[in-house]
Automatic annotation (TrEMBL):
It is found in: Cytoplasm. One of its GO terms (molecular function) is 6-phosphofructokinase activity. Mg(2+) binds at D106. It comes from Sphingobacterium arenae. Keywords: Allosteric enzyme, ATP-binding, Cytoplasm, Glycolysis, Kinase, Magnesium, Metal-binding, Nucleotide-binding, Transferase. This is ATP-dependent 6-phosphofructokinase. The gene is pfkA. ATP binds at G14, R75, S76, G105, D106, G107, T108. Homotetramer.
Amino acid sequence: MKAIKNIAVLTSGGDAPGMNAGIRAVVRTGIYNDLNVFGIRRGYDGLVKGEIVPMDAKSVANIIQRGGTMLKTARSEEFKTYEGRKQAYENIQKLGIDALIVIGGDGTFTGASKFIEEFDIPIIGMPGTIDNDLAGTDFTIGYDTAINTVVDAVDKIRDTAESHDRVFVIEVMGRDSGLIALRSGISTGAEAVLIPELNVDYDAIMKRLDKSRKNKSSRIIIVAEGDKEGGEVVADKIKENFPHYDVRLSILGHIQRGGRPSCMDRVLASRLGVASVEGLLQGRRGEMAGLICGQVQFTPFNKAIKHIDKINENLTRIVEILSL
């Protein structure tokens, strides 16, 4: 096995709070192990276009508390082609880069798997996505910050809902996963949580709203954007059933991606950044570093990218019990 002397790190897919902490950990762990470290700007697109810069300890100073990603991120149609991947490989060959660390989600790891298969380059992944929908880790980088952002926003909205006796339908991110909606729904006391993994029982929701109208001055419905019908349709259906209710729709949108990462996300990203570099030096490749039951574990890319489509039934049961 060829000794690793030069590594590079990139962020790909949607940005997530804590990515900068992960970049910082990779760079400083690499330097600690006498490696030369490079940063690839704009993800796989930058890899294809040769946007690769050397990094040192100073280049990642004062970034651990910042949201987003200092290396930027972008989608790359070119990297999806063999010609694009060949150009990317030639770019890292010119700089003598021996291995990569990629921070992102399933699309990032799918691209990494193809790159390994074709060009035999060692790659380790770090789970950076606010959706928390990757297998092989209890939590992904950015998830904790995202749900705390939702909770903060919903708490503020409830103040207005209480003041005006309103029903608020709040749409949160989660096109393929309802984990943001589910956990934030429990922590904000939502009357109902609608997620893409489960069929919507509108009759049950309407009965719940009707039952609560005498003893509650506000009602909150959390809807994941990936739900079959979305927040707007849900709000319209409530208006049809309860024309006397003052129903409002609030779409939180991209505020959930931004902001200072929480302590949990900073520590998680730091631990996984260190583990990723050490994993490469131990000869690992084609695996994602994750945290399971408090311990770092590595999961092959092909298993990590299988979305978690089975929701913890205990969480949905808690929503129903506590919505009385």
